[in-house]
Design a protein that fits this description.
- This protein folds into 2 domains: about 230 residues, Type I PLP-dependent aspartate aminotransferase-like (Major domain) (Aspartate Aminotransferase, domain 2, 3-Layer(aba) Sandwich); about 130 residues, Aspartate Aminotransferase, domain 1 (Alpha-Beta Complex), CATH 3.90.1150.10.
- Helices cover about 45% and strands about 15% of the residues.
- The strands form 4 sheets. A 7-stranded mixed beta sheet has the order 4-10-9-8-7-5-6, with helices on both faces.
- It is globular and about 60 Å long.
- The two termini are about 20 Å apart.
Length: about 425
């Protein structure tokens, strides 16, 4: 139900012959991904089909422009590949226009700014420490240098977006572009509320659904379509595709976005990635993917409940999606310390700021976890109590500097992972 096409032929003979050192590193990464419990919410396992498409001879073609409007000849096949990806994106998300060429999420967001704002204009997004993304106008990003970024956040008492504050800020600052979405938001985004605010403020509204695109495609999170002007997303994470991105929009904004991507920001698209995106979009259109998306959320809710039962402090009190943000302050263990200890225990997470965090971003109070990868391996809510137990034991071991306890957990994790092979990895 939850796993895409699974296995590749063992080994990489051509790579091993040409570059044994690099082949050995690839093999080491394969074993690491197979043996560990991956809880980083932005990571996933792609199918063997997506991996194969990513490594085809489409790599050899240069294709500046768009289907039917290229600057190089010999595009008879490439045009069909890109058109296939475009049409599948439009059908899956129910949009009028899709551009599948952005190299990744940050360039996609930059294209949205280029399309609708000028240097020095005011732009608005969620503050990075509150769960937003660097490219939503945060100061250390180019978007915070080229534009005047203003940020909204969450309520201190609930950890939820304060839509009244968002509206007041938008009407006071009158931004050209508003971003909604983020990288550490465990709750449902009210796209309709953002849409009303953007229309009142006269702003172009961009929904950054990079984290939840697979949930939206699978019907496990409300869609922004009909409420926003532009949708930006990566094609990996919950969508379970290659490392790429897409921009989708109403027909009104299609030309501006296409011009911003090419020639505004990029040259030739990565055709092998476009092909892998097409494969992932086809997989996401199948009933089994809808089951997967709902299973991701069910696992996250079960894991959150199990962590709450063990006394963990979760931002906003839980989750509605694939992501859980834990504040480890009550446990007396900094997020970075906990993340490194969990890694030694075979549980891969990332340290993360929490709202109103008194600690610095590189050594924050929180840990961010998610369920896309473990769901791809076929784990169910019945496994989440065990996962929460391992997290609890590992955090306790981190506080006590008990390496033996972490080694014990790692062995237990490896046993469970062996029983649930990862999609796309060699047998």
């Amino acid at each position: 139900m939850t796993t895409p096409q699974t296995q590749l032929p063992a080994g990489h003979p051509a790579l091993a012959a040409a570059d044994p050192e690099l082949a050995a590193l690839v093999g080491a990464e394969e074993r690491l991904q197979a043996d560990t419990l991956r809880l980083i919410p932005s990571e996933n396992y792609v199918s063997a089909a997506v991996l194969e498409a990513s490594g085809t001879v489409l790599q050899n073609k240069y294709s500046e422009g768009y289907p039917g409007r290229r600057y190089y000849e010999g595009q008879q096949v490439i045009d069909q590949v890109e058109t296939l990806a475009i049409e599948r994106a439009k059908a899956l998300f129910g949009v009028a226009h899709a551009n599948v060429q952005p190299y990744s999420g940050s360039p996609a967001n930059l294209a949205a700014y280029l399309a609708f704002a000028k240097p020095g204009d005011t732009v608005m997004g969620m503050a990075l420490p509150m769960g937003g993304h660097l490219t939503h106008g945060w100061g250390v990003s180019a978007t915070g240098s080229w534009f005047r970024g203003v940020q909204y956040g969450v309520r201190r008492d609930t950890g939820l977006i304060d839509y009244d504050q968002v509206r007041d800020l938008a009407l006071a600052e009158r931004p050209e572009v508003i971003f909604c979405g983020g990288t550490a938001l465990p709750r449902t985004i009210d796209f309709a509320a953002f849409g009303e605010i953007a229309r009142e403020a006269g702003a172009v509204l961009v929904a950054d659904i990079a984290h939840i695109a697979g949930l939206v495609a699978g019907g496990a999170h409300p869609s922004p379509v009909g409420h926003v002007d532009v949708i930006s997303t990566t094609t990996h994470k919950t969508l379970r595709g290659p490392r790429g991105a897409m921009l989708m929009s109403t027909e009104e904004h299609a030309r501006a976005l296409d011009k911003a991507v090419f020639p505004g920001l990029q040259g030739g698209p990565h055709n092998q990635t476009t092909a892998a995106i097409a494969v992932a979009l086809r997989e996401a259109s199948l009933p089994s993917f809808r089951d997967y998306a709902h299973a991701v959320v069910a696992n996250a809710k079960a894991l959150a409940d199990a962590l709450l039962a063990r006394g963990f402090d979760l931002v906003s009190g839980g989750t509605d999606n694939h992501l859980i943000l834990m504040d480890l302050t009550p446990r007396g263990v900094p997020g970075k310390t906990a993340a490194k200890a969990l890694d030694r225990a075979g549980i891969v997470v990332n340290h993360n700021t929490v709202p109103f965090d008194p600690r610095k971003p590189f050594d924050p109070s929180g840990v961010r976890i998610g369920t896309p990868s473990l769901t791809s391996r076929g784990l169910t809510p019945a496994h989440m109590d065990q996962v929460a137990d391992w997290i609890d034991r590992a955090v306790t071991a981190a506080a006590a500097e008990d390496e033996d306890a972490l080694a014990t957990i790692r062995a237990e994790v490896a046993d469970l992972m062996a029983a649930h092979p990862a999609p796309g990895l060699p047998a």
